[in-house]
Specification:
heterodimer, A: 114 residues, B: mainly beta, 6-stranded mixed sheet, 5-stranded antiparallel sheet
Chain lengths: 114, 113
């Protein structure tokens, strides 16, 4: 089955630690995205990548880093610089970043601070 | 400053009746609009979209209406079913190279049996 897989589903982090959230897609999509959802708010864009080895900051990139070494993978690192990391993180992909392509989402990772 | 607004955080509708979810936007550069449905602990699922060159798009029980002059769009679900109970997000794409999605804050729809 084609789709987007995010792991783990739940993640706990101690203060001061970096953690990496995994996102893998087998849809052969060029573009991938990371969003953050907080209670009562819409999804906010953290980073996006239009093609392998390229990525751009979204609206709330501070305290996060990404890499795009392979087409199917777009991991997100939440660094210790992110002061309020507790949130639901969603990864998405689309066929391309141009045109009117719906983004397809994984099931998310819920990150909590211990 | 929210560019896409869903002013109703929740909506309850009786099964079989029409559900109308509303969305307003402020950015006149938006030229493509989407609705997503989200169940708890899952990612959003794409439902239906509309280009700014149209004012209506229909797919089964779901119809999206776009009023460009009012910068308003709405999603109609008819007839509503209990399985439609979810959070519905309106999203918009701006003309330009990045084509990023801007999301509203969502409306929780509850369809009562």
């Amino acid at each position: 089955d084609g789709g987007i897989t995010q792991s783990p589903k739940y993640l706990f982090r101690k203060e001061g630690q970096n953690v990496t959230l995994s996102c893998e897609q087998n849809l052969n999509h060029d573009a991938m995205y990371w969003y953050r959802q907080d209670p009562g708010q819409g999804l906010r864009l953290i980073y996006y990548s239009q093609i392998v080895n390229d990525f751009q900051k979204g609206d709330i990139a501070e305290g996060y880093s990404v890499s795009r070494e392979k087409k199917e993978s777009f991991p997100l690192t939440v660094t210790s610089a992110q002061k309020n990391p507790t949130a639901f993180y969603l990864c998405a992909s689309s066929i391309s970043a141009g045109g009117n392509q719906p983004q397809h989402f994984g099931d998310g990772t819920r990150l909590s601070i211990l | 400053d929210q560019q896409v607004k869903q002013n109703s955080p929740s909506l309850s509708v009786q099964e079989g009746r029409i559900s109308i979810l509303n969305c307003d936007y402020t950015n006149s550069m938006f030229d493509y609009f989407l609705w997503y449905k989200k169940y708890p602990a899952e990612g959003p699922t794409f439902l239906i979209s509309i280009s700014s060159i149209k004012d209506k798009n229909e797919d089964g029980r779901f119809t999206v209406f776009l009023n460009k002059s009012a910068k308003h769009l709405s999603l109609h679900i008819v007839p509503s079913q209990p399985g439609d109970s979810a959070v519905y997000f309106c999203a918009a794409i701006s003309s330009g190279s990045a084509r990023q999605l801007t999301f509203g804050s969502g409306t929780q729809l509850t369809v009562l049996p």
